[in-house]
Amino acid sequence: MAEGGKIDPMHQFEVQPLFGQGWEIAGYQIPFTNSAAWMAATLVVLGVFMLGGMKRELVPGRWQMAVEGFTGFITGMIDTNIGKEGRKFVPYVFSLFMFILFANLLGLLPTAAAGVHAFTVTSHITITGVLALVSFALVLIVGFARHGLHFFSLFVPHGTPTVMVPLIFLIELFSFMFRPISLGLRLFVAMTAGHILLKVLAGFVINGSAGGIATLAIVSIPSFILMIGISMLEILVAGIQAYVFALLTSLYLNDAINLH
Amino acid sequence: MDAEAAKLLGAGLAAIGVGMAALGVGNVFGSFLESALRNPAAADGQQGRLFIGFAAAELLGLLAFVVAMILLFVA
């Protein structure tokens, strides 16, 4: 019989140093970890994808069409959500969307077949939190630079009765301050939950197949079929979460640019 | 009650919240589809709002998941 529960679904999220154990800044160790390696890999894949498609040919090939599809998608999203003034934020939102999308998809690759343990950088709140804080800081900078202290009118919607202003202000302020938390948390939890689910199902498949023909038929094969379905769902979630992150960033930018 | 058992029970109860979020997400997409079939021409323009609603409904389920994870691994 298999020793049940030997497969630890949380092991995949461990950050391990690859090299540079001796490096440190102000007493903190800063080795080059597998997380950093996968972020670098994401950037390389993204760079190759973009450079291969930025040929500016009059009759675009397939690759250029793929890249133009992505840029057109983000530009359209910014145009509908912010308007013409949002055009200068297209590069930022596009980079954010593509980085998250590629990091999500690279983390789903079955690289264990090649002996490399896949690591999803977006399954760590340190990374998604920093991305969310950058977006939030951009909203604050743009808002205060454009509107000055008038930016605070964001917290008091038009037509609020005077009696209600303090209460509404507090509620709106709280919902505003919760934005970076919800933005980072959503991406991090969605990726973490999916990967835990996949690993738990993989544990069922392995443990079931070790227990003989009966458990193989009852446990392993249904789990494996379910895993295929969940994998497809995870690819969908990887795209949706990247889209939602970019969409919410553009909505928050819209608040900062146009108030409301 | 044993503290460890209470943690596990709490984590299991938090899973109810994830199921409730499933209702919410299903409601978002179901209502969208219902009205999109009534007026297909206007459906494409509302896709952004569809995903905003999806994100808001989903977040609460994810928060329930975070509660479960905190109970199991942190608390």
UniProtKB/TrEMBL annotation, chain B:
NCBIfam families: PRK07558.1 (NF005733). It comes from Allosphingosinicella humi. GO terms for molecular function: lipid binding; proton-transporting ATP synthase activity, rotational mechanism. InterPro entries: ATP_synth_F0_csu (IPR000454), ATP_synth_F0_csu_sf (IPR038662), ATPase_proteolipid_c-like_dom (IPR002379), F/V-ATP_Csub_sf (IPR035921). Keywords: ATP synthesis, Cell membrane, CF(0), Hydrogen ion transport, Ion transport, Lipid-binding, Membrane, Transmembrane, Transmembrane helix, Transport. This is ATP synthase subunit c. F(1)F(0) ATP synthase produces ATP from ADP in the presence of a proton or sodium gradient. F-type ATPases consist of two structural domains, F(1) containing the extramembraneous catalytic core and F(0) containing the membrane proton channel, linked together by a central stalk and a peripheral stalk. During catalysis, ATP synthesis in the catalytic domain of F(1) is coupled via a rotary mechanism of the central stalk subunits to proton translocation. Key component of the F(0) channel; it plays a direct role in translocation across the membrane. A homomeric c-ring of between 10-14 subunits forms the central stalk rotor element with the F(1) delta and epsilon subunits. The keyword Transport applies.
